[in-house]
Amino acid sequence: MSDFDKQKGARSIFERILEGTALLSGITMIAMMLLVTISVFFRYTLNQPILGSQELVQMGMVLVVMLAMPYTAYHSLHIRVDIFDKLLGRVGRYVCDIIARALGIGVLVILVNKAWDKALDAHEYEDVSNMLQLPFWVAYAAISIGMACYALVLAYQLYRQLGNWSGYDE
């Protein structure tokens, strides 16, 4: 098996992981939309609010954002502000993108470490939400997983960028 085939296989596995996190994010978003719709109906029509729905939505938003971000970045679906692109030119954009990705990886590594430590602490001390007793470690773990995947995406993009100066036009 050639190096290209190995790299393609590894990329395919990573793409599947990102698709899985994005799918989980989408399912969570749909569940939250249903919960909010039902909660509003119960509150205003039946005068019976669903207790704890706000906690579920807050926890769900962490999952939605953190698990969708790596997929979004991998496929360049995020917002990109290109105010200085024409001023910087191709070389300036190339260098700035390298710096931005390297700094992003550094910040994300710190975030992953801190969030993972918080997840372990929350699990050890059994930190839970007020009303539904939802464990907080789940949210911290989602932050760690999502941001670790995001750092890997940035590392992959940096690797591709450094190996492709002649075709760089991002």
Keywords, separated by commas or semicolons:
mainly alpha, elongated, 77% helix, 170 residues, 4 helices
Level of helix content? over 70%
Shape: elongated
Strand content: under 5%
H-E string: HHHH
Write the layout of secondary structure elements.
Blueprint: H1 3-45, H2 53-74, H3 85-124, H4 137-162
Explain what the structure shows:
With 170 residues, this protein is mostly helical. It is built from 4 helices and no strands.
Brief summary of the model shown:
This protein is an all-alpha fold and 170 residues long. It has helices at 3-45, 53-74, 85-124, 137-162. The chain is elongated and about 65 Å long.
